[in-house]
């Protein structure tokens, strides 16, 4: 359950500049524009995840189906739970999810603030996942979920003022390119908050549980180990992205990334 609100928070990290384009409301709206990569990696505090909407319920969008039946229009629809956001693909600057709520789960902080919110479908799935984990003796906590465009911009600008733009881009996502801005992503830790959004979270029993079971609830480990050249991000065992059960199951079973699911061009590295 949750209360509908609108807000945002978070930050991300990126590696290097690249061409990017903004995702429009339909598949052919990808314009070339200046952009760079960015992802999430919060210094302290956490980041989040997000989700969108059912790929099959995009009525009048251009279909753009690929040979494997994947509806590519969903990848470009900012309101789709299957939207693809990465260092090349950005959300429209004025995008703001319309159905943000506070998931009724444990977080590493008490305040009802922006980074506690997710889109309603993702929030419900998160509640089910945390409950399922507890049945297995795994106690999770949210660290950081939604982050508005303005929050991401403020964070990024702060880093630019401190370290210069080039360096800032190596650890913070360029505004519009953070998955946390979709309301479908969340950074998760164990209930003690240890190793939150840090490499040492990898290998913990919580990380292992998430890797094995998150897909059952519609989430994927968005930046898997060994897929850095495709996602553009290092392994982040804590960053979960809601994509819906059907897509999550497919991605989990095939051991692929969201980019590969859409046959998207790798964000960095060689194809
Ligand atoms: Zn994150």
Automatic annotation (TrEMBL):
<feature type="compositionally biased region" description="Polar residues">
    <location>
        <begin position="16"/>
        <end position="34"/>
    </location>
</feature>
<feature type="region of interest" description="Disordered">
    <location>
        <begin position="1"/>
        <end position="74"/>
    </location>
</feature>
<dbReference type="InterPro" id="IPR052179">
    <property type="entry name" value="DD-CPase-like"/>
</dbReference>
<feature type="domain" description="D-alanyl-D-alanine carboxypeptidase-like core">
    <location>
        <begin position="116"/>
        <end position="245"/>
    </location>
</feature>
<dbReference type="InterPro" id="IPR009045">
    <property type="entry name" value="Zn_M74/Hedgehog-like"/>
</dbReference>
<dbReference type="GO" id="GO:0004180">
    <property type="term" value="F:carboxypeptidase activity"/>
</dbReference>
<feature type="compositionally biased region" description="Polar residues">
    <location>
        <begin position="60"/>
        <end position="69"/>
    </location>
</feature>
<dbReference type="Pfam" id="PF02557">
    <property type="entry name" value="VanY"/>
</dbReference>
<keyword id="KW-0121">Carboxypeptidase</keyword>
<keyword id="KW-0645">Protease</keyword>
<keyword id="KW-0378">Hydrolase</keyword>
<dbReference type="InterPro" id="IPR058193">
    <property type="entry name" value="VanY/YodJ_core_dom"/>
</dbReference>
<protein>
    <submittedName>
        <fullName>D-alanyl-D-alanine carboxypeptidase family protein</fullName>
    </submittedName>
</protein>
<dbReference type="InterPro" id="IPR003709">
    <property type="entry name" value="VanY-like_core_dom"/>
</dbReference>
<dbReference type="GO" id="GO:0006508">
    <property type="term" value="P:proteolysis"/>
</dbReference>
